[in-house]
## 1
Amino acid sequence: MDITTTSPGLNETRSRDTAPGIVVYVCRSCRSEADPNPNADPRPGATLAQAAVTLGQAEGVDIRSVNCLANCKRGLSAAMRSADGWSYIFGSLSEDAAPDLLVGARLLSSAPDGLMPWRGRPDILKRGLVARIPPLNFTEETP
Ligand code: FES
């Protein structure tokens, strides 16, 4: 079966992928660090996730909503997975951080060494960095 004839939407998405090899997962369940009101509706994480998914669709970056990233005590959270490079966990994001996530995804996608460069990285992705995770094939010489 020729998938191109059955999935034109998929091909369309791939052809305008502006951060190839990157998927951003945004937690839709996070509460605000400043105001962790359990009854907030919508939750601040849901607001960020919806805005990021919508912006990603408009600008060709694969951004997906996820229920929880187990980073709940660090405020609004997102994970940035890289097919070949390092992956990142961020916390302490704001509800309006969607554009910053797109900038970060594009930086990581175009990084020749697979590491998101510090230069050009949005401040919120500097302050909110929780951890980075090496790619599967990574090994490091030890003395
Ligand atoms: S609720 Fe968002 S990381 Fe757990």
## 2
Amino acid sequence: MNRLTGFAFENQVAHGAFVELSEGVAQMLGHRAYSADVRALIGEAMAAMPLLATHLGFEGRINLQFQGEDAMKLLVAQVDHQLEVRAMAKAPEQLQGSFTGLLHGGVLALMLEPRAENRQSSQALVPIEGTSLAQALEAYFEQSEQLPTLIRLAADGERLRGFMLQRMPPEDARAGEQDWEHVSILAATLKPEELLQADPATLLGRLFAAEPLRLFEPRPVMVACRCSRPGIARLLLSLGRDECDSIIAEQGRIAVTCEFCGKEYVFNAGEAAELFAAAGSVPSNTRH
Ligand SMILES: [Zn+2]
């Protein structure tokens, strides 16, 4: 089962979460040829997204996006407030390398995209440093949010796991610096491979045996793509009638493949014409 399990210490020094993903992972990663290293990095990014969403104080989406030219070209991982996760990457098929090797020369950014139109999107750079995506995200929280955070991510084929421990803002906590040091030192002993071997309750018992904490009811996480025919129709409308007409003149139809899930949407000439007619657009050859 895909789930996100939150926990908090009774003294409010820190809170955290575990994420466990397996259902839907093979499908999401299955329609493109990825090298083992690229696949593992996408897996880690997918595991990170629900952890990041524990921060989302609004309805909308978090987008982790990498763009580069030297090695990987593109990596996109997204999660929304309903904990639906999707991800994809573009990279040369044979590309292998370490975290910093794969992302060499590019830019990694985290975008918060509220759905409400009156709320601004925001974007912050994630420093490409350390030996893993987890360490880069830790650096992001330290620099952008001033919140000491510990993250572990593990990807083993179709099984993805993540762990996050974060200090509560000092004004919210009854505990002090020493309490944080104590729990963060304990948490730092957690190895990514241990994440793959035990469930959250067992791991918490192992890590923080003597610390009073609460484990929350797990929330379901979906690994799925929310692309739809109406969504693709909106994309065609934004392309414009002339562009769509010229694709149909050339290919007889418009076929759009979703970058995330590989699903293909086809609009024949009649369907495309109907789409533009419904939107109040007329073919350019009938314009004055
Ligand atoms: Zn899709």
